[in-house]
Fold:
Amino acid sequence: MVEINVVDPLLRKGYRFKGIARVLGDGALFDEILAFFRKRGISSPIKHIVVIQVERAQPLISPAYDSGATEEEVRGRWQDYWRSIERGDSTPPTGE
Structure:
């Protein structure tokens, strides 16, 4: 069983996918998937491909929303944070 979380770094929302993973390093399915990516211009060396049979998908929401914050407020906090990184001050927003 594996879990993959995909989260928008500014909105702090996304999805959690759980399922069974297989690692492919050769064979017909590996070749088929590799051809799929090659047709789309991916030229990086690929030695293995992970295929996940998703058994459950659920929304994932940061605790930043627990206080009633809106998406705009959460986005604004994180945009301010990343701007502060550029200025040399790296204190992350609270409640994350």
